[in-house]
Amino acid sequence: MTEMTRRTFVQLTAAAGVALGAPAVARRAHAAPDKNRVLFVSEESNPKAIAVYEKINADFEKETGIKVTMEYPGFANIAKRVATLIAAGTPPEIVWYGAGQAMNLALEDQLADVGDLVKALGIQDNQRMIYKGADRSIPTSQQFVYGWYRADLLKEKSLQVPKSWEDYLAVAKALTDAPKIYGCIVPSAETGASTLLLETMFMKNNVHWFDWNAGKKQYEVALDRGDNKKRAIETLDYLNELHKFSPEASNYNWGELMSTYVAEKAATSWYVGARLLEQVNANNARIADATMPFELPKKLTEHYYLSIQGFHILDKSNVEGAKKYVRFFMQHPDVISWYHAVPLHIIPASRDMLRSPKYQDHPVIQKRMDVLKFLDASWGKGVPLYYWDGKELNPHIGLYHNENLAGLMLAMRNIKGTKSDAVVDFAADQVRKKMRRTG
Amino acid sequence: MSTRNEQRLWIAGTTAPAILFLALVAYVPIGYAVVLSFMKKGAFASTATFSGLRNYYLIVEEPDLWSALWRSVVFTLGAVVLQVTFGLVAALLLNRAFRGRTIVRSFFILPYLLPAIVVALVFQWLLNQEYGVVNQILMESGVLTRPINFLGGLGTAMWSVIATSAWQYGSFATLLILARLQAINPKLYEAAKVSGAGPLRCFWDVTLPNLRTTLVLVALLRGIWMFNKFDTIWLLTRGGPLKATETLPVYAYRLGFEEFDFGMAAAACTVMFVVLLAGASLYFKFSDPTREVEVGR
Asked: What CATH number should be reported for the domain holding residue B274?
């Protein structure tokens, strides 16, 4: 048989490839958002929530003719999915997830101005996310960082619910009988759980990562400066003390905060929201009624890390269709079932809704009205990370929050034994280095 | 059209789909990643800007890259040595005649068939500090007084990950070595025995020389796969504690999907690609791959 040269072969193959691929590339380059479609990527993938989405979406399509396509990549993968869709030139219309994560989109000018919806839906001022003078988020719900304790074990040892850092340490110590049971859980790993614990405890001790420089109109790293550094060191040292009454937890994330408590290996734990309670109810009913919420104790402030979730509309998409959908969704009678998907975990952004008989009309909520009352009492003390250091949106929080720098700090202190001042200096240097890198 | 041209077209037409597919799923992504490594590209930005060697400069400057590279070498060497050793011992045992040999052989391939997520979850439970079976057994038998944090300990995490990989992928080595063992001419053993060789001498003088090329091939293949290994490490430890198991693939992933810097992640991937390319080139320079699959010598 006649041999074909490599050159001829490559030329023929390349020509065939161009012939096949060119029409698709040309089509994509000229594609405009379809007015009759909305792609909605949602972090919430609970089957009950999905059922509500399906019902509302069907009603929306019937009324407007706009078809809503859902994607549920899950908490761990949603940022990757959104990045992939943007990179492919097909951004979704709506992303529902934490406003802190969505801020990454705002910084790249990917989010549409949703001020009209924020006004129409009566969103409270402290839940808005404003970037370049415009609202970029439509808050639907929120989660607080707070603790859970075994009331039966505290009662057994005649202990009170901790109100101060000293109390918490004493309670954790009294409840510890290692390795059988630990008094608390201080996750010390580069994970979201460790990060949120340190970020919350920093808030409790009024530690700021950044300072607003009014002259230069910009945020500057302040973690390793003056009294702020002293408080950061104090917080790390405190968590190091507390860690003595915790499992080593050097690889703990959200799952372990729940499983260790559910398996009765820890007398107290903490979480963002009430999913821990849901897991206790589902897996260890014996301790369910004894599982009570408490605020992580304050040092200088009562603030805690506040996670706000909401709708975010992408700018280069079918913005009008997306806005119509969000308005329709929020006003739909079944939206209350969506809030009930994991009762008390993701709570309404509106306090009125939290207090409404309609929201409270759910067996789990009725059974645990104490948790609802606790949430109502804690209302308003939370601060989203991007507003922790000042009134202006801090665009730099991703530099430490996204990669769990606070978790690494806890791991350095509690697992490696690095001195707290060195940990604080290291973290501040890291943030400065990343600021230079990102320009 | 001449017969020669018809033949050319026929060859091109029949092979082009396969080549195109390979290009689309392998070469285009590699090319894209290399191009991306010269760009400044955030994960959520729709556009990328050319930044020359900036990404390479930044990652080379970072101690994290070099630590990750070193950990990749440790992980690869540890896993490959264990896998080949396990494979060799298991293959020698399975090459002997005993009742139920076929069933036992099929059991040996099972770990290789399990998805990484299943293996990771099983080992997470087995090695769990608070309620893992391994700690339970060690505590109850009096070997330990306090449980070991296998996957969360600075000194134990890497070895736990290596052991998990060895358990899962050792059966691949077993299969290849066993196949080669079965192809060794029995006359060689007979001749050795006639010359007065015992079992150990037979192993050193007959088995091992015949296995040498297979062992090298297994080590190379497993070495490449282990150097690129991401799933098992990520699922078991996510690179922790304190980056103790953060190998190059985990480092690249972290840059891309936690720091959201696709340009730097692509630069890290390119470095990884170059390291592997250099390793493979050395292998091809100093060995003859065609001889390594020869049998019956």
From this structure: 1.10.3720.10
